[in-house]
Queue: 3 jobs
Job 1
Amino acid sequence: MNGRRTFLRGFLSVLLSGGAIGGILKILPSKADAREAPPKGQKWYGFGVSVDKCIGCARCMDACKTENNVPREPFFFRTWVERYIIRKNGATTVKAIEPNVEPSPETASDKSILRSFFVPKLCNQCASPACVQVCPVGATFQTKDGVVLVNEKTCIGCRYCIQACPYGARYLHPVTHTADKCTFCYHRISQGLLPACVEVCPTQARIFGDLNAAASPMSRFLRMNKIHVLKPGLNTEPKVYYASLDGEVR
Amino acid sequence: MNPELIRNLHDLLPQIQGYIYPNEIEIHWGLLIVVYPYITGVVAGAFILASLVKVFNVTEVQPLYRLSLLTALAYLLVAPMALVSHLGHPGRFYEILLTPNTSSAMAMFGFVYAWYLMGVLLLEIWFVHRTDMIEWAEHETGVMRFIHRTLALYSRDTGEVAVSFDHKALKVITIVGIPSAFLLHGYVGFIFGSIKANPWWSSVLIPIVFLFSAIVSGIALVILLYMILTPLTGGKISMRCVDKAVDFLFYAVIVDFSLELVDFIHRVYQSEEEIKILSEMVMSKLFASLIIIQVLLGMLVPLLLISLTKIFKKRFHLNEDLRKMVYFVAVILIQFGIFATRWNVVIGGQMFSKSFRGLTTYKMEFGGLEGLLYAIFLLALPIIILAVLTKILPPWKEMHGQPASESAEAAGS
Amino acid sequence: MGKLFEKFPDPLARLIVVFLAFLVVGVIVVAVVIPKQMMDVSAQWADAVKREEARPIKYAGFHVCAECHDKIYETKKNGYHRDLSCETCHGPAKAHTDDPDKVKPVIPAERTFCPQCHAYNPSRPRGFPQINPVAHNPLKPCASCHNPHDPKPPTTPKECSACHGAIARMKAVSHHVQLACTTCHEVPQRHKVSPWSVKPTKPQTREFCGKCHAKDGKDKMAKDAPKIDLAEHGEKYVCWQCHYPHSPEVEQ
């Protein structure tokens, strides 16, 4: 009798852990904010973007492609910079700027512009990443310091994660045929260096650091600015924080 | 690096409307992923049709019973091919079985599929054909005898206990099978419906819409096959059977249409931030495939045609050939309509930017694993498999209205 | 068939045998044939993290440059480019630090390079130094007037703009370009000594702007300035609640 009960329990738990129900049970939060803060002393990386400081020079895009061997074609980006032009009639035009293109000088004569600015974009390294949730083989995962990585040895290239990312931060690498995305330059930050884009940003529009650190450029950034994240309604809890973000930015 | 891909993407650049995130230009789920839900839909639909006979005792459609089971099997065998071929690393498909991520809807595919294939479909087909295979083997020689003997697992017991067990088992399997068929295709809908980042997909209604469109496509396809195969094998089409099946098809189309309409009205009325880009997409890039093919030709015209046969009952009942003609056109239109439905969900969901500011374009390839030729091959393959299956397990007797064997008749009643 | 199976109907017994056979084969495959590593996700993740950490670095980071180029570092440290990393302009230099003689970083000398940051672009933040590369000393290399490691505007700054550069640059391209700061602000001498405790004045009333912009304004210099009726225009608001005096907007 006892043996059969243990068997039943084991069988049920196998069913649960192997079934979609297991996934659902894992997701259901027990409290309103169920996400546990990482323990003190554990690194928990975050990223800051000062929209007001970005000059759209595209040094970051260039450095990222160099540092991470991202294909140079304009269809694969781990980070990119969008230019917003909002006109007085309410029309908004957006363009991703192209690196290393000789800037065509613009004059101040375009009086129809209401406001205009640049917005750097990159993987938001969400605390609740939708991409990790949907990966069928567990090839994309969150490290204990909060960075979402892709294991290119087990990624099967199903591209479900690309569909699930609300920010368009992922692409299929045309050489490895696996999903690829910003890693916060994991090889650099694990040696105490800054991500390449932060390293080369001439205006400190990009800030990187440990969110758990008491005093750092990152924590100062969070303390001194009004902060917003992209698409907060999707509950992905991004760890790329924007200061002075315009409502038109999506 | 694939220079053809790069060239194609460069060709797409001038066709972008508005702003899309730079990584979004490539449509990642192409024609193969359109084919995949279409095929699993046929599986689920055909099985539901078969269970009408077994569970709901709709004896009129008995001639479709075995045909629909074999159709379901033939299509089910092809379904994973479409999925595996589209992977960036088809050779790594086994990862999904070795390290399945429990929170991923897609990871469950292997298990749902295996359960449905092994636990439901093969078992049901085996129990249906067991006594027949024993009987056939007795009058055969050579290879066919060997095949039937082996498939019957060398069983020779046609005694009362064994046969009545067959019937009991069939009943249980079908009852378990209906939710399983719902699960199979509802899960395909869930793969899309659970993507919160994509408002075109993200809807609780999507799995249900998928289910009913699956039932529509499955029933329509089995009717089509029946109407083509019966005369070819020297039988006479039973209009009593077709009429009844078309009845069910009619109701299924109405439910499917209403569900899609509800979804549509809901979206337009709620009018959330993505509504502008979605309506722009529907009115431009999806106009032909959504408005014309899916809704008009795939639903409204067949509904109208079938309604006509019901409204002018007298005239149509006098003329069986005319009725056959109308049914024939209707079920073919429905096939195209459902395929367009899959297209609009899969391709449509990737044509607008998640910035809600622009549209990209899908450029279909011709050759290659993602191309048109291969998709046509995948769509034709189930028919070939079905031809082989009917050689091994011929459903003709039942389709021609003669009791295939005593057991089948007993099971049907 | 053993005695056990005689209890079952024939079809069930046969299926159970097949099922058990599958089960046994399945268990053997899982337990013996498939390597453990292939089924252990956390081990795969640990490997992936190691692989990720081992990727080669291309950008060395600004600390490294200072070790050899200490003079340039000292120059740059106090200039406007103090926050720039060396590799922002000179490109990835890890290879150079590994083998300083063989690999040399680029020295961008073309006139197209500096405008990537400094060409005028209405999307750039206000106050960021920008020029029109077509009109600005055509054909002259940037470095002939500006030292990139310690760039300075070529003219000595006027008194106010030395500190209020952002405002001065904005005003320089606005319709108020002709107005001296002192037209609107009275600046006590003490302000230059202790800028926080003694502040310049700011206009307080609508009538102040009205000296130029009122319909009946007296100032002859401003006869072309846009005119409004102070009694009707803008109701209770003071002018600078709608208009920014350092860069007043212009109706078309």
Job 2
Amino acid sequence: MPTIRFEQVEKSFGAVRVLPPLDLTLDDGEFTVLVGPSGCGKSTTLRILAGLEELSGGEIYFDEKPISNLASKERDLAMVFQDYALYPHMNIAKNMSFALRLKKTPAAEIETKVKRVADMLNIGHLLDRKPAELSGGQRQRVAMGRALVRDASTFLFDEPLSNLDAKLRGKMRTELAEMRDTLDKNMVYVTHDQIEAMTLGDRIVVMSEGVIQQQGTPEQLFKEPANKFVAGFIGSPTMNFLDAELVSEKSKLWARGDGFNLPLSKEMTATLKGYSKKEVTLGVRPSSFSTDTKAGAPIELRLVVSEYLGAQSTLVTKCGEAEVLVEHESSSPVRTGGTLKFGVRTEELMVFDKETERRL
Amino acid sequence: MSVQTNKSSSPAFYALMICLIIMAMGPIMLMLATSFKTNVDVNDVNVGSFFFTPTLRNYEAVLCNVLWYSPSSVDYCDPTFGRALGNSIFIALVSTAITLIIGCMAAYALVRFRFMGRGPISMTTLLMRMVPPAVLLVPVFGIWTFQYGLDGTYTGIILVYVAMNLPFVIWILQSFIVQVPIQLEEAAKMDGANPFQVFFMVVLPIIKPGLAAAAIFTFRIAWNEFLLGNALSGRGTRTVPVTIVNSITEYDIDWGVIMATGMLLAIPPVIFTFVASKQIITGMTAGAVKG
């Protein structure tokens, strides 16, 4: 399993630069998730790694061996495509064994390998069928199986679950997570879905406009986002951002804005000493609100809509003119149109620089 | 439903259908009937078109050298037709094969590769098709005869048919190749296929319906072509249409034999079309990628 290192890799399509120079190291045996909104360059990064796109500059190293001039098949990679890309004229067994047959693997070996992977993915009974006769979920498994049969050192996944319906996606996600634990392989997984990223990744690389915003474990990204983009991208429902001014009062820093006045924790007061009287963006997770007003600093919110999700509801509220999402236990009902009092756990607040959007 | 029934049950509709059927089938029926007539009956105004004593003499005359018995009705066995049929089959099959091989590769290159002049080349291939064969006749005859000495050879005729059919085949196959999802080729690349393997093992099987359609088209043109075949073939390489015309002489027009030859001429393309059209199925990429 090689360590994969991107060094100043860049990509332009004509005059359009989709990937400014990018440095990235993927450790041996790690499940790395590249995540970001559409058009952030994550798929391009993966395709460059796969050898499906040529890079316009820089170099990729596998264990310090440059590989950018190697063809896809010489890189020892297997890839699962977003829209399956199964060969329609071959049955499932032939689809899965295509790579092995190209390598002139003995027929008996091919059969045992295909059988083993097919059983692992519960598609053993489908081997004689054509892709057209399979459901979306089954096709997705075959696409996965085709990669797994290869026994390559690194597996690439290009949004493999995005074409499945929500229920199936959840199921496949769990299976992938199981697979991740049993296979000792490098895996690079591209997705725009932060839930997939959080549940699957050993390490998540958040990208935006071709630039890596932050990389780290799911917990790091959630608790210590480097900037406003990462904070807003990771976590569901998304973080609330409120314009605020930092005011020093009673030996404490207060974040004051339209409809709220929240004290910052001691540690934050210490680190943000120099920012008194500055305009900042205050980040509050929807989960930081508590119906128990004594649990934190009090805040009053005007309820607009309550989105019932089962045990939890997401309340869409207004704080002054700004929209604020609140995670709320459905067991204590609320009335639309009224004003509600919440306690904000101030130790979970985040403060971002208004200009640079970096977390302070 | 009821509206449709009303429409199709109107007498005028049936009259029109019958007219069209007569126009389409009439000549063929007449040819079939005539092929079973003796020469005397053909020229006798008192014998009806479809009411006469049928005979197999004409067929025996045409097929005399391939039959397992020597027909008593034939005094002299002319081997021309048997030879011409062989020539026709050989020329049509070989030119179809060559056209398809070159055509699918050219079409693939025009669709998938980015190179200078790709658009104009794609357009001009089709423009070539707009030139009527009669215009080509004289220059081709001149070049084939005086520069390369290809007149009267199989090579010469096959070459012309390939050149004639290639533009249309490229054009048809381009539209089929465009429909092959690029992800399939990328998947094959990742699976370790080289460009030739991608083409022959993934793209070609998928565009089989296109190849079949192109094959039917090419085979029929090569089979029926008369003008260039007449000019370029020699005594030993004549195709069936040329032979039929050559059998009409100033002294004798054997209508019965000509019609029998015509009937036999129609059989191979019918068989070929049936076989090839089995490959024309819809949904060639069904299940390949999420639609």
Job 3
Amino acid sequence: MSATTRISRRKLLKAAGVAATGVALPAVWSGRASAAEQITVADVGGAPGAALRTAFYDPFEKATGIRVEGVAHESDPVTQFKVIVDTNSKLWDVCMVTPDDVLRLTQEKNYLEPLEITKGPDDELIPGALMPNWFGFSAYGIVMAYRTDVYKKEAPTGWADFWNTTKFPGRRGLYRNPKGVLESALLADGVDPKNLYPLDVDRAFKMMDKIRSEVAVWWTAGAQNTQILQNGEVDMADTWSARAFAAIDSGAPVNIVWKGLYSIDGWSIPLGTTKLKQAREFVKFSMQPERQAAYSSIVANGPSNLKAYKFITPERAKVLPTLPDNLAGLTVRDYAYWGKNYAAVSERFQEWLLMGGKK
Amino acid sequence: MADIASLGVVEHPRTKARKRKLDPLWLALPGLGFLGLFLVWPTAQMLSVSVMDKVTGALTFAPFLRIWNGGPYLTVLSTTFQVALWTTVLCLVLGYPLAYWLSQKPAHQQRIAALFVLLPFWTSALIKNFSWLVLLGRNGIVAKTMAAIGLKGGDQLLFGRTTVIFAMVHTLLPLAVITMLPVMNQIDRRLTMAASTLGANGARAFWQVFFQPSIRGVASAGLLVLVASLGFFITPALVGGARETMIGQLIILQINELQNWQLGSALAAILLISTIAICFIYDRIFDLSAVTTGQGRPTKTNGPIRRAGLAMVNAAGLICGMIEEIWKRNIRGLRGGVLLSIYAWVMIALLLAPIIAFVPMAFTGSTFLSFPPPSWSGRWFEQFFASPLWLGAMTRSFGIGFATAAITLLIASMAAYGVARTRSRLGGIAFLLCLSPMMVPSIVIAIALFYLFARMGLVASNVGITIGHTVIAMPVVFMVMLATFKGYDWKLDAAASTLGAGRLRTFWRITLPLVAGGLAVGFVTGFLQSFEELTVALFVGGGIKTTLPKQMWDGILLQVSPVIAAASVVVLLVVIVMFAIIEIVQARRSPASGPAATRDS
């Protein structure tokens, strides 16, 4: 008995060892062998990650022969980005970031390579899409969504209606983060979108006091936002347009009000990458209207190059934030303001949350 | 192995002639060295940021003053402690009867019931919380049932302190039960029988004979649950309301979003210091060395706390004894044992609810998670098994899981053996060190390790993730092995050597077969800890070495696709298969091995 078990124990250890090296080996090979003809792009993963492959990565490889390996970064990539550059580990060649991130990555110390790309003569970029070290390819609306089965007679048309709980009674949901929420409060209070920044923080918090008791859910993740709209946990909520569209797409009675802000997801190149040329080529490639159209046909974010609408069906264009009709109600979120004030406002927001909320 | 073998027969603790020999505590050295290198050092380095000026590097206490002087920090700290205390109390009160019930079962049944209790502990926090969002939601199945039977408030179940505490108790109850169980298993049942012979009824026998020795298990369970619950952050973020911000969330906000490492580290340091303070106070009241070695320092029979405690226990015994008498006289049909069984099964059903609910959700025909699903389809499983990403992640998780389990089992068993057999007072310190990975928030461990690994070239490597997972898995495996070794009857070794067996022979033929069950449990525990770990995989993996939970996290961030549910059903099957393997291995070895069976009967 003990002899056989001893053998099986040894076998088991051997098997575990083989399994462990088996897992480790391909990683070593793939990491070194194809160094020149491959770049690593960090994106948000999930469904958008798959769409990026179809719309950008695979076509880029076809066009240039450079393979793109897509890896998912953390929900907020800045810390990971800094750590990777600081430790010189060169894990990423391109990373998907927002303009807010760009500011945080250049404030105290520069973490970004210059892009050195310009728009082509035919390209028509929306405001705020190109910076020296960042190119935005996919815009999303920070807007409002409501359940059409709850507001049957009269639909809310803007942020003032979101705050008007006597005319539109019902459960509200808001993002557990001051970014975007404070702007919504000011818009509801009648501030002209043109004069939004710098934010009148005191006025915004005064407005927030009025809505506090009606907010049932302070959501924290995009997935949660879709979920609460889809299953009717809330009747009205702020949303990132593609998140609300995911609920609509699944057949939920939800509608989007195109009033609020927009921001753009884009590419930056980490300082010190050894494949700078290929990385720049990739960023430039993502400006092509056909490619952006292909992406917006899968993910409900708007192309930053308006020429892309030539390749998008009118029906699809309706749900995209950068369609001129929709874009008219949106203001670009001021990343410079948030870059400077986020820490202080966030602290105040946390304090405000603790004072009350749903009883 | 030979080293362990030579120490297989350490001198019996009660032998008077004390030979000059190394204290067995030296066996804990590899484990402690590992933790020192991969936990204490990198964490200390990271936390030192909190007292260093950003520019000059001079000593400063500015971040601590800032925390003290205003902002949300003190309120959040107090919320954290209140939630953690409630969670601990509820875990102990609800878990004690469940552990008692388990301890009454024969070994085989006990292991199967323990599997049910433990399953939720190894299911990812994300999955459980999303399950609650679906089940307890405004239009969820619970709300609908409550409305159907005329109960109000079914649409207000989520997003409050009660929900957070409920979800946390749900997560930590298994830990409490599994820590109390081995201690209860060791209590000699004949004592209760003797008490009955002497005229005590069931309730009095329980309170005055069984309860007192079981306190040791309650104390260590309380400590583990309290320490673990202080670091929670996903649960309050997903099911909590506006006021339920916990310190873990603020640490992540500061470090991850605001890049204010100084304030983030200061908050982490406060959390760590509070944890150590709790351990110290605990040691004053409950005597942790008793928890570790089972002997402890001689208690003063006249100590006021002890006397008060004894009086309370006696009073409880008297009152419960009277209640039992009245109960027996008036309500004949229902016996206490039946009630206990009903209670235990209700608890187990509650524990399993969010996990079992995921199975039908994985077969949904819709693109969303909903319960019950509107239509049925197997496409999410097809998608799972057709995706190289998911399969690659699963393979990697298995590889890393096995490697982690093997390393952790080796060093944790050695450490547990050393701590269990030592007579040195340093044993308590070694015990706390082995549990220390539980006290440091996992995000701090992950970032600290990233910096260390970057210098060693281990970032985005499977080795790096394995080391990180070994750190994380250490405490639980250590606890399992400690319970095993403390339940082991060392007189058997002495008997074997009296009968002429050498140390090696004794180790191979007596000790090893008897603790094999514990070793198997330890291995599987280590494997599962690694299999479910997210934060270290997130950071150290660098997004390049993707494990299964990391892959789930990517998928859950923007939209919860039912593929996640399919993946977690696969994980559930893996867990059950692992347990089945232990069962088979144990059945083949000997019918009465394993920690559950070592009690005297």
